[in-house]
Design a protein that fits this description.
The complex is a heterodimer of chains A (about 110) and B (about 120).
Chain A lengths: L8 E4 L5 E6 L11 E5 L6 E4 L13 E6 L2 E6 L8 E9 L4 E4 L3 E5 L1
Parallel strand pairs in A: 1-9
Antiparallel strand pairs in A: 2-6, 3-4, 3-7, 5-6, 7-8, 7-9
Chain B lengths: L2 E5 L2 E3 L5 E8 L7 E7 L5 E7 L6 E3 L7 E6 L4 E6 L8 E8 L7 E4 L3 E5 L2
Parallel strand pairs in B: 2-11
Antiparallel strand pairs in B: 1-3, 3-8, 4-5, 4-9, 5-6, 7-8, 9-10, 9-11
The chains are: A mainly beta (about 110), B mainly beta (about 120).
Chain lengths: ~110, ~120
């Protein structure tokens, strides 16, 4: 059981918008920055969002991050078939003194 | 160009030890925190350990605390993970990743991973 809770799967049609939630607590999301990762099949994870809502160079603005109290959300607009992947949220947990990831969400672009 | 390459994985019997390496290039090792993250077959990401940028802090997941040890050789730009008393459940792909900080604010570069299989 992951410390951060994500929906196991989401789906949407090409061109549509999807959001992926990540729920935590005051010991993790509530007091630490959240990051988001995309993992395409058979590859290493890739950073999409850091510090809650910042995009690294080269990440298109179709990807966005937000946070409210103890939950974070990844938004993807203009869905493409190439966006089909597993998505993970991550943060630090001050009570555990350890990093934590969500269980991952599989995005299907129908 | 930042590049991370893990090595040292393989098949090992339960209770034995294994040491993983992560060779970094294109950046100054001593300016960044470095993390180990693993992924069991068909499962999600599991954060394992971190070494702060100045080498003064180390943190571990409860699942490996006391068994795994993270360290580095700055002169060789190499990160290590010493894994002792290995268990079946340690079977996973092990990734090293560069961190913006020792917290998981953002792991901006990842290696391709090295596979560790614990089996008798």
């Amino acid at each position: 059981q992951s410390v951060l809770t994500q929906p196991p799967s989401v789906s949407a049609a090409p061109g549509q918008t999807v959001t992926i939630s990540c729920s935590g607590s005051s010991s993790n999301i509530g007091n630490n920055y959240v990051s988001w990762y995309q993992q395409l099949p058979g590859t290493a994870p890739k950073l999409l969002i850091y510090d809650d809502n910042k995009r690294p160079s080269g990440i298109p603005d179709r990807f966005s991050g937000s946070k409210s109290v103890t939950s974070a959300t990844l938004g993807i607009t203009g869905l493409q078939t190439g966006d089909e992947a597993d998505y993970y949220c991550g943060t630090w947990d001050g009570s555990l003194s350890a990093g934590v990831f969500g269980g991952g969400t599989k995005l299907t672009v129908l | 160009q930042v590049h991370l390459v893990e090595s040292g994985g393989g098949v090992v019997q339960p209770g034995r030890s294994l040491s993983l390496s992560c060779a970094g290039s294109g950046f100054t090792f001593s300016n960044y925190a470095m993390h180990w993250v693993r992924q069991a077959p068909g499962k999600g990401l599991e954060w394992m350990a971190v070494l702060s940028y100045d080498g003064s802090k180390t943190y571990y997941a409860d699942s490996v605390k006391g068994r795994f040890s993270i360290s580095r050789d700055i002169s060789k730009n190499t990160l290590f993970l010493q894994m002792n008393s290995l268990r079946d459940e340690d079977t996973a792909m092990y990734y090293c990743a560069r961190g913006i900080a020792y917290t998981v604010r953002g792991l901006d570069y990842w290696g391709q991973g090295t596979l560790v299989t614990v089996s008798s």
